[in-house]
Amino acid sequence: MAMQQGPALDKDVVIAPVALQGAFAEHQVMLKKLSLKRKICVVLVRSEEDLAKCDALILPGGESTTIALLARLAGLLEPLREFTKIKPVWGTCAGAILLAQEIQNPKKGGQELLGGISITVERNGWGSQVESFEAALEVEGLRDADRAFHGVFIRAPVVCSLNAKPSEPPIHVIARISAGLLPKTQTVVPHDEDDTDPTDARTIVALRQGRHLLTTFHPELTADHRIHEYFVSECVLSTCA
Amino acid sequence: MTTPIATPNGSPLPPPVAHGVGNSIGTPVVAPVKSGLAQMLKGGVIMDVVNAEQARIAEEAGACAVMALERVPADIRAQGGSDPHMIKEIVNAVTIPVMAKVRIGHFVEAQILQAIGIDYIDESEVLTPADEEHHINKHAYKVPFVCGARNLGEALRRISEGAAFIRTKGEAGTGNVVEAVRHQRSVMSEIRKASVMNEEELYAYAKDIQAPFHLLKETARLKRLPVVNFAAGGIATPADAALMMQLGCDGVFVGSGIFHSGDPAKRAKAVVQAVTHYNNPKILAEISEDIGEAMVGLSIDDKLKGGRLANRGW
């Protein structure tokens, strides 16, 4: 993994949801509502030309197969991979799948990923839409840490394993769900029913690696800006990430 | 091309979960997990498929979901009636969400589809209605519903019954976009009208269009429907899809238009790209080239085989 860079200090920071398919407008609105010391400029990315202006990206929720195909057809797949190697990127749900290094249960014939975070995820880990759920989450590092973050999980992916090599930035887990919420259909790993299990990767719902952020739920579907704020200040603007 | 300002379909939906200081958002009109899945489908194309093979073609072409049914509307017109039973095979063939249709008012068909584990139900006028007075009480289900509408009143009545997602009715199975345009224009024009009304006028307007007042008021405030709104019924070309997007839709359904065309895989991919790049005529020109014969468009008049489906629903 190449050295990840923060934005130059002398200009506005450009942060962009990738606007190929999915809930990109929701992210755009959330970003515009942030009040931070540094001025941020929010644009949408649909082409290589748009991408060239960006300091950081958000890969939104949507369908990962659709977004990957549209990226390829727009000539964006390789540029996005290059971008991901050096600049901050946050993936939510489908975006989290794209940002993973490896996936289980891809579409038949496999599907294209961007990589960027050294984990394996399982697509539709919980099953169909009837298994979608909401849960109160404790997310480390947020402002007002005592206040739970409302996690909306929609056909969400499940984190299967963390695979960071010693040469790569370490993976830092920032939120887990209780093991009782895990998909019942999967092989059961021994766990403590009452609490978030620190040994089971599948309970992880938010994590960081270097300047990359991953959430398997949808902060953009709530009115709570704290994870957007976290991404901008900790992953994009911070000089010590 | 960068879009600096939000276009009609780029305009945000209300955050369904009210949290945070100083939040003025009221109660969500539907549960966040239900409306949320529709939000994930935005900017995408949902394709009608009749078997697992077509479902795979749709997934490879970038469909964000498929609608499983026994026959596409153009064939339902020709053969009458439909009763989906290939759904499970389709569910197993693809990783994207699978939707399926039930007859208007047929709540048992809905119970069955929910038990199968379908991702979304379309209470659809394309099938013969099971009830000529009542629609399904869609609040009672875990699985979310999409419903067709020809105007704002109809859309808000469906949302009030629990629909988490609205589409134009258009005229399915015709390959003719004119009715979808009419319905989308009605919805948008009525929203614009409502958005400048004061409260007394909104009460009168709610009565006039037979819509629940609180939903009309929320729509007027948002200047858009409070749920995701797709185009459906007669979309056959990439340009049709882009037209509906520019008229303010969040995405499109393509039924017969794909698998009744000369080269389904190519056309499907072109429509998918058209929905993403709907505002970029240069890209639209490129993707509209060399995509095979379009489905033959039927004129929508009294002689239309199977009659006008859009008149079903109340």
TrEMBL record, chain A:
Active-site annotation: C93 (nucleophile), H218 (charge relay system), E220 (charge relay system)
EC number(s) on file: 3.5.1.2
Keyword vocabulary terms for this entry: Glutamine amidotransferase, Hydrolase, Lyase
UniProt cross-references to SUPFAM superfamilies, sorted A to Z: Class I glutamine amidotransferase-like
GO terms (BP aspect): pyridoxal phosphate biosynthetic process; pyridoxine metabolic process
Keyword Ligase attributed: no
Binding site for L-glutamine: G62, E63, S64, R123, I154, R155
Catalytic activity: L-glutamine + H2O = L-glutamate + NH4(+)
Gene Ontology terms: cellular component: cytosol; glutaminase complex
Keyword Membrane belongs to the record: no
One annotated GO molecular function: lyase activity
Family, per entry: Belongs to the glutaminase PdxT/SNO family.
Name the record gives this protein: glutaminase
Native source organism of the sequence: Steccherinum ochraceum
Lineage summary: Eukaryota, Fungi, Dikarya, Basidiomycota, Agaricomycotina
TrEMBL record, chain B:
Pathway: Cofactor biosynthesis; pyridoxal 5'-phosphate biosynthesis
GO biological process, one term: amino acid metabolic process
Classification via Pfam families: SOR_SNZ
SUPFAM superfamilies, A to Z: Ribulose-phoshate binding barrel
Segments forming a coiled coil: none
Alphabetically ordered keywords of this record: Lyase, Pyridoxal phosphate, Schiff base
Annotated active site: K101 (schiff-base intermediate with d-ribose 5-phosphate)
Signal peptide coordinates: none
Ligase recorded as keyword: no
Residues binding D-ribose 5-phosphate: D48, G173, G234, G255, S256
EC number annotated for this UniProt entry: 4.3.3.6
Binding site for D-glyceraldehyde 3-phosphate: R185
One GO molecular-function entry: pyridoxal 5'-phosphate synthase (glutamine hydrolysing) activity
Domain PdxS/SNZ N-terminal intervals: 33-232
Substrates-to-products reaction catalysed: aldehydo-D-ribose 5-phosphate + D-glyceraldehyde 3-phosphate + L-glutamine = pyridoxal 5'-phosphate + L-glutamate + phosphate + 3 H2O + H(+)
PANTHER family in the record: PYRIDOXAL 5'-PHOSPHATE SYNTHASE SUBUNIT SNZ1-RELATED
UniProt similarity note: Belongs to the PdxS/SNZ family.
Protein name: pyridoxal 5'-phosphate synthase (glutamine hydrolyzing)
Organism of provenance: Steccherinum ochraceum
